[in-house]
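Example 4.3 (complexes with small molecules)
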Amino acid sequence: MTMTQTISHHLTDSLLMGYAAGNLPEAFSLVVATHISMCDECRARAATFDTVGGAMLETSDAVAMEEGSLEATMARISAALPVARGNGSTTQPGQMQGQHQRRARGILPAPLQDYVGGDLDQINWRPVGMGVRQALLPTSRSASVRLLYIPAGASVPDHGHRGLELTLVLQGAFMDGDMRFGPGDIEIATEELEHTPIAAQGADCICLAATDAPLRFRALMPRLAQPFLRI
Ligand code: ZN
Ligand code: ZN
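Answer. The structure with zinc ion bound is encoded below.
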């Protein structure tokens, strides 16, 4: 994974704020940390929330901020680029400061390599059907996160969502309708969205996907398999 690819689908402010405040379930935190490790833009925005959050905690009982203190804060932010943590633990404001981004060797970005204890060769894939494979990663149970391996041209069964689903592309690309998601892109699916992501031709697609509620599959077969796959 190099940093030269163009990322066009990013994290929302609310996800970045929740991450900076340490309020996200572990599974979402891992996806956010991994995107941040791949995306200069969201890393800079995360640093802003991290610093502003920390500053608000420190000054919450102070009377007023001095004139120009916001500018001073922003100047400090740009001097200290943060890095994502890979241990999947919830995070505290200010924890990212003073660290630097690490570039991982291999397919998995550094936060994920830390999490699984290695690269793709450490992954224990299980077949999901239609050539798709998954590997559930251990997290707290409030949300779940998995690696998905989707052969080029294959699709994930048509489904809706009962909660929030974050899907981050690590390798290859998938199409969702007329939108394309390539390496580093993150798709944020909510209850309104029903979709059938299809891996693009040319390369197998590897994604990191987190959900906080079971998906709703339209077809019978995926519904029957659902309890066994914990999707
Ligand atoms: Zn981004
Ligand atoms: Zn989905």
